[in-house]
Amino acid sequence: MGAVTDDEVIRKRLLIDGDGAGDDRRINLLVKSFIKWCNSGSQEEGYSQYQRMLSTLSQCEFSMGKTLLVYDMNLREMENYEKIYKEIECSIAGAHEKIAECKKQILQAKRIRKNRQEYDALAKVIQHHPDRHETLKELEALGKELEHLSHIKESVEDKLELRRKQFHVLLSTIHELQQTLENDEKLSEVEEAQDASMETDPKP
Amino acid sequence: PSRASSSLSLQAEVFQALQRLHMTIFSQSVSPCGKFLAAGNNYGQIAIFSLSAALSSEAKEESKKPVVTFQAHDGPVYSMVSTDRHLLSAGDGEVKAWLWVEMLKKGCKELWCRQPPYRTSLEVPEINALLLVPKENSLILAGGDCQLHTMDLETGTFTRVLRGHTDYIHCLALRERSPEVLSGGEDGAVRLWDLRTAKEVQTIEVYKHEECSRPHNGRWIGCLATDSDWMVCGGGPALTLWHLRSSTPTTIFPMRAPQKHVTFYQDLILSAGQGRCVNQWQLSGELKAQVPGSSPGLLSLSLNQQPAAPECKVLTAAGNSCRVDVFTNLGYRAFSLSF
Predict the structure, then answer these.
(1) B178 in helix, strand or coil?
(2) pTM (global) more than 0.90
(3) Does the structure show a pLDDT above 60 at B210?
(4) Which residue, among B267, B269, B281, would best test binding to A if mutated, counting the most A CBs under 10 Å from its CB?
(5) How far is it, in rounded angstroms, from Cα B208 to Cα B219?
(6) What is the C-alpha separation between B312 and B327, in angstroms, rounded?
């Protein structure tokens, strides 16, 4: 267990500051110069070394402050990204709904188009047939003509009947006259014959 | 011995390849769950393809091959329909039923096999078309004996015979509102039959109308589809849209090649026939699109609109080859399944 964590620590330290330049080296140098300063003798050197150590320390503090700020910034950046991620999810869901809505609308529009085309197809066929009003008018006119013609026919037939009857009367009268004349002739013939026989009879 | 077996398997391979070369797929049917497609060919075999596997994102070449293939009939499988549990297939004179759940396991047997009452026992006419009438739970068969037979699906008895066609019947369609059945045949007439009175109520002799008749192609009606008030039919005469109540042809679709399958879809009419393409028409007569498939001629189209599997909503087309083209979006052919 201990070995694993050591490895982890080494790995992390290598990752952060592997090449030895930077904060780690600074802290090591500080420790070494502190030890040297403790062991040094003269006042002047000690003071300059002390100043140098203070400046190194402040450099370390500065870099630590910077790292803390960067850490803060990263946390806030993460929050920001979470927020954006949620917003995008919402808008994706919204877009899905819109797509479903649009699909329904497409189906509806297709139905409407189909109805329109069916209407057009029937209308085309109907247009080929002539207009109803005109046909009705033509029918009326034809009806009137028919009536008129049938009237004429009736009147002509009546006339024909009348003429026929008149001719019939004429012919029958002629026949009667003929009969009467024939009868008269016969009578007169018979009379003449009688007269002739009466004349020949008394002679012997 | 190894050489003999390898030459035998080579022979078998050659035989299979020859079979595939001369194969024609006559009929298709989608399973009630929407995830499988059955295809029947001229050798009497039925192959079940898994649409969900072939459409998934991890589809490989094997997903485009059938899950199972079996010998269903002795003759070609001309027509197939699916009920909510069964697949009904018909070929030379007989109709067989298979359970969908059983078919996916190898070595399934048919549930039943029936023959409609033919006029003479010597006749074995082919059954060209099957139609389900859900309101009365019956199946209508029509084919080479020029009659429509109705079979009750529960009892299996043949209840009606509708006579009137003078030549064999190619296709059937159901007019749901009335309910009436339309049948189109070789005699060039589309006949409407009222199922309740078992009588012919309307006859449309397509070849007698000048606008659509094409005497050089013949008068046969190869395909029919209806949308209650409208009917589209094609074959020898041109593909025409009819208004049923007035029996007038309203739109003639300018397609020279005879069409063998037609269907209404949303606001379009899809048709296929001689020629590689699936044609999409608007009701006004305009050609909206022509999408080429992989077979030189197409005999059947199937739209998978099963509500249980919306992800498998595809159009499949099959015909004079061993392949079934899958169109995921009507604009192009996505891929092909193959026997």
Answers:
(1) coil
(2) no
(3) yes
(4) B267
(5) 9
(6) 10
Residues of A in contact with B250 (CB under 8 A): 121-122, 124-125
Give the SS3 label for residue B176. Answer: coil
CA atoms of A154 and A152, how far apart (whole Å): 5
Residue B100 near residue B117 (C-beta atoms within 8 A):
no
Structure tokens of B324?
A: 């079934």
How many helices and strands (H and E) does chain A possess? 4, 0
Separation of CA A2 from chain center: 73
ipTM entry = 0.79
Distances (CA, A) of B334 to A50, B8, B102, B162: 81, 36, 29, 42
Cross-chain Cβ contact B251/A114 below 8 Å: no
The sheet carrying B158-163 orders its strands as B127-133, B138-143, B147-152, B158-163
Exposed/middle/buried for residue B284 (C-beta within 10 Å: 0-12, 13-18, 19+): middle
Residue of higher predicted confidence among B33 and A12: B33
Q: Letter for the amino acid at B108?
A: C
Strands B323-327 and B36-41, sheet pairing: unpaired
Name the residue with tokens 């109308």. B209
Torsion of CA B154, B197, B89, B313, to 10 degrees: -100
Chain A, nearest residue to B267 by Cα: A114
pLDDT in tens, B80-97: 999 999 999 998 888 999
